[in-house]
Amino acid sequence: MGRKKTNLIYTYFDYNENNKTSKCLIENCEQVLRGNHGANLLRHFYTQHRQLHDKILHENKKNKENVPPKKDDNHMKVMKHCSKLVTIHGRPFSILEDDAFKDLISLIPNSNPLSVNVKNIKTMIEKHAYNIRKNVHDELKDQLISLKIDVASVKSRRFLGINIQYIANGKIVLRNLSVHELHERNTAEFLKETVMIVLSRFGIELKQLYSVTSDNGANMIRMSKQLEEEMQENTTEEHDFVEGEDSEHENGYEVWFAEAGNLNLNIDNQGQNKLTTVRCAAHTLQLAIRDACSELRDLLEQCRQIARVLRSPNNALQLRVQGLPQAIIDCPTRWDSTADMVERILLFKDFLSGRTEPVFQTFAVEDTWQKLNETLDALKPCRILSKTIQHEQLTFGDFYLAWLKCILEIENINTVFAIFLVICMREREKTLLENECFLGAIYLDPRVNSMLSNQQLELARAHLVQTYQRYLRLNSTVSVRETENETPDDPIPSTSSSILDIFLQTQFRQRYQDLPHLNHNDNLQISLLAFLNEPLLPSNTNILNYWESKKITDPQLYLISKIALATPATQVSVERLFSSLKFIMNNLRISLKDTTIDDILIVRNNHLYHLCQ
Predict the structure, then answer these.
(1) Counting C-beta atoms within 10 Å of the first and last residue's C-beta, which end of the chain has fewer, N or C?
(2) Within 10 A of 413 (CB to CB), how many other CB atoms are there?
């Protein structure tokens, strides 16, 4: 028995099995065609009965859309959604073996409940994770990238989280490389070997690393230094191999290298691979506030004692009766929880006013409440800054603008604690301004580069030139165009009116008067110098869109900006990665294998970062 024919064209013909002919049933036509092939029959209608031909095609298409899905299509959809249950929604694999779940799957037409099992779903997740790693490898080919690294413990198991960050199409792109379980002590050597193993799985070479953002722990700093040493050793070996094999090729390479950038620099010194360790901006803010709160150590300890007393069953019940929330005990290493504790205690002022216990005596004095209010007022701008630096599309320029705005707002509060907090933030800022990646990113941000001193500008230029040469080493062909930089008549926009923009305008005007105004761009160094003549941008300008608009007119600086501005200011995305790990490793999944955890989180987190399958 043959396949059932659904083409409506057959209803307009009478097929004779004896002589293998088809007779048209349209009135006044009755043409006889050989065979019974649908395409031949449709061709007859196309030439003789055009209106009916179009109608038949429309009906055929309509009927085709109503055909139920094939068994394989339906089954694959069930498998994909089951893997999504495990990876995205955090359900345990054991759900696939529940009788109720199997009964539910059996209700789906053309599904195969027996094949929806733990083994097959794990295999599907492994394949999906492999495809994601392949996509990431293709994305990162010949690119300088920045790493974000941190270590965390979950359910008595230690994991190393690694994210990468780069810029594509005017957007910062985040990718999760691995959540790798650590089975040894967190020594620098072991962390270095682990990072290299993870990078190798994605086909990422050490020479592609531009920076590493971490919490600035001693082992992290040593790990970055060892990665840099390994990178330079590999570069030296490649150089020696080329020299021994063909010295003529090396000379040609140096000629090409000098002509490509016209940099007039020593190639061996300036093009050397260097890996910079970047201090997490959120960690820097944490340290600055911790330094300032050291003056309030006794008062904050009394607040903790009060909070402990108020969390006792009897006091907690009295608070609920009066419609007050529960007291909060802070985590001393998390300043935002300290601010929450102080804010909550201020709500209890009336509740504590009538208490006579010794522990409450300190809070019977109005001066204590005034200090708490002053502390909370000074920390409010820091809370705004803390939320700002958690944004995914955050450059160093965005962070520095938010940092400066926070300092200006705290200065306006003008209390003893506020002044001391500003001093602590300025002191921590010095550490940021010693970092070459930070200086390079600020240099290429016209909103805020006027804050750099002449010495810092010089260091930033040298770093950016070296970065460009590293890019040239990774890419065999680079399009270099010479453009002219024209100095505008009015480099400061007249629309800026906020306190931050007025402050930045003053800094820009002072710097602008001393600049050599260049009208040509014959090499990269001059181009970088001329860039300082760019007009001041308002603080709310999207710097990534600004550089995307210069993609054609200034390709050299555009390429450098994609690398420098992609440097992660914080490691917040790695913290979110560990939040996903805690979600996946619940009490029902505590014994998952490390490779399975890695595959699940590769799928889950890169799904959240919108990486297509």
Answers:
(1) N
(2) 16
Per-residue pLDDT tens digits for 42-101:
888 888 888 888 888 888 877 766 655 554 567 788 888 888 888 888 888 888 888 898
Q: For 538-580, what is each residue's pLDDT tens digit?
A: 999 999 999 999 998 888 899 999 999 999 999 888 888 888 8
Whole-structure pTM value: 0.75
Q: Which residues contact 392 (CB under 8 A, 6 or more apart)?
A: 172, 174, 573
- β-pairing, 145-154 vs 209-214, is parallel
- Amino acid identity of residue 327, one-letter, is A
Note the pLDDT tens digit of each residue in 56-73: 888 887 776 665 555 456
Query: Distance (Å, rounded) from C-alpha 101 to C-alpha 81?
Result: 13
> DSSP string covering 273-289, please?
---EEEE-HHHHHHHHH
Parts of the chain belonging to CATH 3.30.420.10 = 131-279+571-608
Q: What is the spatial distance between Cα 531 and Cα 476, in angstroms, rounded to a whole number?
A: 26
From residue 31, how far is each of 28, 35, 45, 124, 434 by CA, in Å? 9, 13, 11, 56, 90
Q: Which structure tokens are listed for 317?
A: 């019940």
Superfamily for the 131-279+571-608 domain: Ribonuclease H-like superfamily/Ribonuclease H (3.30.420.10)
Ramachandran angles phi, psi of 4, nearest 5°: -70, 130
HEC string of 497-546 equals CCHHHHHHHHHHHHHHHCCCCCCCCCCHHHHHHHHCCCCCCCCCCCHHHH
Instruction: State the Cα–Cα distance between residues 19 and 24, nearest whole angstrom.
Output: 15
CB 108 within 8 A of CB 74: yes
